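TA notes, week 10

Several of you asked for a full example with nothing omitted. So below is the full record: structure tokens for the whole chain, then the designed sequence directly under it. When grading your own attempts, check the secondary structure regions first.
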């Protein structure tokens, strides 16, 4: 064959395999879709209707010949379309409502409790107050510090008249009429001596024209947030050193300040005494007095002049170290709450000797240092 001329055995085998696979594919398609691809060679069956005869032998192949009708068995035809009846049992509680299409979308009615709860009283919004004859919108400023000097206040509103006056916490102030929307007055320092809320309103002397009050706040000035815990006093009070400590932080080291020093960047020291320290606010000018902190319980003075709180201990001998007292000074053991007088007197005498020697040496270098003698212990038990 000319198809295999000049071909190698391997190429001939490939051509044969391709031909065989093609034939198999065509045969498979013909077997699967033969009814759709190939036209039917038999005569077409005419439609059958009730009461009309059918041709059992098929249509005549020759044109011009008569077609013979054959009667059709309707019972056999209807047997091919059997309808299964639906049995509905209406006695079950969970059965669907009779006469409703259970396959259609259905939204159940809203739940109505029985009996119907009382909805309660109907909310009626309050009626807004009527517009005053002279509406007061706001005042400026709206706040100040208690104890400050007198200041100018302005009222902003509408429909002010020339004889209108500003009422500050029930006190009529000499008022200057600037315009129908602005009034001004001077508030004396006596009206803002204490902190608290104040009311401001505008009215006329006869009371026919008035405004609703607005709020004015008098707040306390900022105070020092530390405690005065002790002082080292000099003989002529010209170089006293005060010791301070932040509130609630007694476990931290105290800090010091002298006259004219500014503490915390705001409070200048203007007076130091053994009872209190006075400050001046460098920003607002207010003065503050800080009393010496006196903790509860017996208090004694250590070598640095700082008060040390000695809480009575029920142990036979104290174990805590007292700042300012050397460790080699004998401590007075306690018998319950009753101190040992002999040991206490001996400890005080030893401490006095050491302090006198140290102060004598310091006085040679600084004659302004004041020597303070410790009091003798009480004789009563």
């Amino acid at each position: 064959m000319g198809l295999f001329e000049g071909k190698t055995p391997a190429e001939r085998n490939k051509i044969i395999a391709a031909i065989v696979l093609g034939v198999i594919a065509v045969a498979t398609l013909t077997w699967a879709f033969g009814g759709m691809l190939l036209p039917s060679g038999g005569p077409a069956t005419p439609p059958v209707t009730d009461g009309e005869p059918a041709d059992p032998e098929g249509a005549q192949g020759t044109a011009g010949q008569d077609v013979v009708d054959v009667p059709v068995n309707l019972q056999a035809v209807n047997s091919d379309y059997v309808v299964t009846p639906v049995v509905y049992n209406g006695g079950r509680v969970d059965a669907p409502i009779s006469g409703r299409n259970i396959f259609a979308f259905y939204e159940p009615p809203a739940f109505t409790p029985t009996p119907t709860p009382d909805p309660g009283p109907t909310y009626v919004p309050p009626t807004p107050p009527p517009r005053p004859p002279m509406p007061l919108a706001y005042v400026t400023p709206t706040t100040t510090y208690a104890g400050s000097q007198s200041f100018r206040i302005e009222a902003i509103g509408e429909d002010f008249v020339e004889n209108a006056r500003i009422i500050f916490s029930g006190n009529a102030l000499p008022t200057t009429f600037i315009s129908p929307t602005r009034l001004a007055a001077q508030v004396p320092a006596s009206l803002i001596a204490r902190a608290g809320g104040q009311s401001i309103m505008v009215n006329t002397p006869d009371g026919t024209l008035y405004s609703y009050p607005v709020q004015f706040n008098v707040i306390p000035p900022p105070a020092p947030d530390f405690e005065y815990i002790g002082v080292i006093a000099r003989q002529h009070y010209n170089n006293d050193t005060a010791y301070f400590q932040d509130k609630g932080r007694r476990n931290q080291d105290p800090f010091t300040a002298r006259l004219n020093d500014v503490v915390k960047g705001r409070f200048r020291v203007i007076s130091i005494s053994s009872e209190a320290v006075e400050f001046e606010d460098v920003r607002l000018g207010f003065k503050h007095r800080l009393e010496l902190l006196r903790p509860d319980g017996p208090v004694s003075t250590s070598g640095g002049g700082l008060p040390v709180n000695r809480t009575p201990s029920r142990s036979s001998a104290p174990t805590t170290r007292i700042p300012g007292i050397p460790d080699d000074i004998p401590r007075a053991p306690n018998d319950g709450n009753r101190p040992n007088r002999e040991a206490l007197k001996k400890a005080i005498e030893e401490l006095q000797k050491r302090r006198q020697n140290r102060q004598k040496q310091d006085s040679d270098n600084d004659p302004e240092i004041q020597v303070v003698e410790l009091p003798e212990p009480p004789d009563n038990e």
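Residues 298 and 310 are 6 Å apart (CA to CA). Use that as a sanity check on your answer.
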